[in-house]
Amino acid sequence: MNLFALTSDAARRIVRIPLTAAVQQEMDTTFSNQEQRFRAHSEEQLPFDGKYKPDDGECLYIDDYDDIDGIHAAVANPLGIPEIVAETNEFEAIKALFVGKNEGESKIALIQNFDKRKILSTSGLSIFHSANVFRRVEGIGLTIGTSLSAILEDARLSFFSFHAARQLFDLSQYYREATDEDLDEFANSKILKVDDVNSFVATSDNWVRRKVALVMQSGILERIDLEATKKTALVFGIDIKTEVNGDGSCMVLPTKKAELKKLLRFLDEDYFQSVLSSTPHLSNSKRPV
Predict the structure, then answer these.
(1) By CB neighbour count within 10 A (0-12 exposed, 13-18 middle, 19+ buried), where does 206 fall?
(2) DSSP secondary structure string, 228-283?
(3) 256-288 burial by CB neighbour count: b if 16+ within 10 A, else e?
(4) Of 31, 46, 124, 141, which sees the most CB atoms within 10 A?
């Protein structure tokens, strides 16, 4: 299986990462093992509806996904894909790594998220342990992740986290707007305080409804540490107000539309979700993939 990178560069959407034979063999084993774990924890597949959050043993899928990036085509014709350039800018454009294969008539791509934290850059000093000493990493490199984010099998895209999947693919046509009932449920979350729920529902425009739907679908309100969230928000100039109620501390939802949108964007943005997923005390997720 050839290793490819999906990038944010429209002119070089997919690039190929050439490997030595030994590394290629190990890469095949790594992705095959990750596929087995993914499938073992997705025995029940449920159609994505923008609201349901999968439990352990479940995953979401979108049928008839339009592979506009040409992932399957790249797997079918790897030599027609340009090789990656060993430069920092090229590596920083990577959104995902993937390999592909055919099983019978099925075309399968195994995909994992990629971010800048996985780059071994020449701008700093990267070292690795070998033969009882630490040695310097010569040249730019990358770290392969430990789990798959999605599997694209023919036209079915399967994933556990819609937030992670939409970082990789344009899924805007699958977004949905929160209904009045969804907004009411959101406003009555234990971790939130909304002074006037009826006013909040009545004044929520399409943008707010879409963001609320995404925040609810991500399940982030069920997993955040409020104090740590406040500190992270301050870094981005967002001052989250809190109060103490019968259920403990809660986040006060701003009444001003501009401040509300800043908060919702913060809760849904990649930088906060990345902090959540990479910081143990900010998450209680137990999913092993």
Answers:
(1) exposed
(2) HHHHHHHHTT----EEEETTEEEEEPPSSHHHHHHHHHHHHSHHHHHHHHH-GGG-
(3) eeeebebbbebbbeeebbebbbeeeebbeeeee
(4) 31
Taking only Cα atoms into account, the Rg of the chain, rounded to an integer number of angstroms, comes to: 21
Residue 82: pLDDT over 90: yes
pLDDT higher than 70, residue 21? yes
Element (H, E) at 36: helix 21-40
End-to-end CA distance of the chain: 21
How far apart are the C-alpha atoms of 279 and 273, rounded to whole Å?
10
With bands split at pLDDT 50, 70 and 90, how would you rate the model's confidence at 233?
confident
pLDDT (0 to 100) of residue 144: 87
CB 148 within 8 A of CB 34: yes
Q: Is the per-residue pLDDT at 236 higher than 70?
A: yes
Number of neighbouring beta carbons within 10 Å of residue 98? 27
Task: Give residue 150's identity as a one-letter amino acid code.
Answer: A
Whether the model pTM is above 0.90: no
Distance, in Å, from the CA atom of 148 to the CA atom of 185, rounded to the nearest integer, reads 32
In order of 62, 135, 171, 262, the CA distances from 179 in angstroms are 21, 56, 20, 21
C-alpha 162/C-alpha 48 separation (Å) is 9
Closest CA to 123 of 137, 109, 106: 137
Interatomic CA distance for residues 201 and 159, integer angstroms: 31
Counting Cα atoms < 13 Å in the Cβ hemisphere of 288 gives 10
Beta bridge partners of 86: none
Give the pLDDT confidence score for residue 287 in this predicted structure.
Answer: 34
CA-to-CA dists, residue 259 to 55, 132, 138, 214, 244, angstroms: 33, 53, 46, 18, 21
Orientation of helix 270-278 relative to helix 226-235, angle to 10°: 140
